[in-house]
Amino acid sequence: MEGALAAYQEAVTIFGSSCNYYSLGSCLQALGKIEEAVEAWKACVDIDFTYNAAHANLAHAYAFVLKKPELALNHYDIALFMNPEDGQTLFHCGVFFESMGKLQAATKMYEDAVANGIDHAQKKLESVRERLSAK
């Protein structure tokens, strides 16, 4: 993986495209270097704001690793505005809302995730509905 990292770092030096920065960020994430991955994904969206996968990765990193919920929500909003049928992003946004205790919002995200082919969201949806009905 270190060889891939060196190759991606060289690629962004030679041609700093959004795709190269996105790939660098993904490689850094795989190596557990989340802060550096975030910087690469931010560079990606600075070049191409519509790079949806980078917004989704930023949202996930901010939500679950860096614990910056405002930034996470901002990037989830952008990613889902650009692709409201992205089942994985809907699912992860549901997990984020659930972790924040926003069960109604989580329910909606899980429902949409299921509707967009994310079968494992069904279990989360059922769990959240049970918690809501118990209140």
Features:
mainly alpha, 135 residues, 8 helices, 79% helix
Give an overview of the whole structure.
- With 135 residues, the chain is mostly helical.
- The relative contact order is 0.09.
- It is elongated and about 55 Å long.
- It has helices spanning 2-14, 18-30, 34-47, 52-65, 69-82, 87-99, 103-115, 121-133.
Protein topology:
Layout lengths: L1 H13 L3 H13 L3 H14 L4 H14 L3 H14 L4 H13 L3 H13 L5 H13 L2
Question: In a few lines, what is going on in this structure?
Answer:
By secondary structure, this protein is mainly α. 79% of the residues lie in helices and 0% in strands. It is built from 8 helices and no strands.
Low-confidence stretches: none
- Cα end-to-end separation: 48 Å
Determine the fraction of residues in helical runs and give it as a percent range. Answer: over 70%
Shape: elongated
Annotation, overall tally of beta strands: 0
Q: Helix/strand/pairing class, anyone? A: mainly alpha
Strand content: under 5%
Order of helices and strands: HHHHHHHH
- Quick one: biggest sheet? none
Mean pLDDT: 95
Tally of individual helices:
8
